[in-house]
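Data availability (excerpt). The following record was deposited with the supplementary files.
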Amino acid sequence: MALREKLAVEISAKTLALLRDLARREGVELEDLFGEALEDLIAKRRGDKPRTNVMDAYQTGWQKFAPLHRKLTD
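Predicted structure:
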């Protein structure tokens, strides 16, 4: 396990409630959600790789609208 350091942040009560609910539903610690979110933000800002959910949505849309894409390119 990676060494962890403490970090204090202030967020809205609404956001914190949503995060707590998400952590409870997923069965993970709140700290794990923060870590995941921060890692995703760093990767996004660095341009490391496309986010998985974005690529999944792209693929789904491409498959759904493939006939239209073909008509537009003909």
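Summary of structural features: The radius of gyration is 18 Å.
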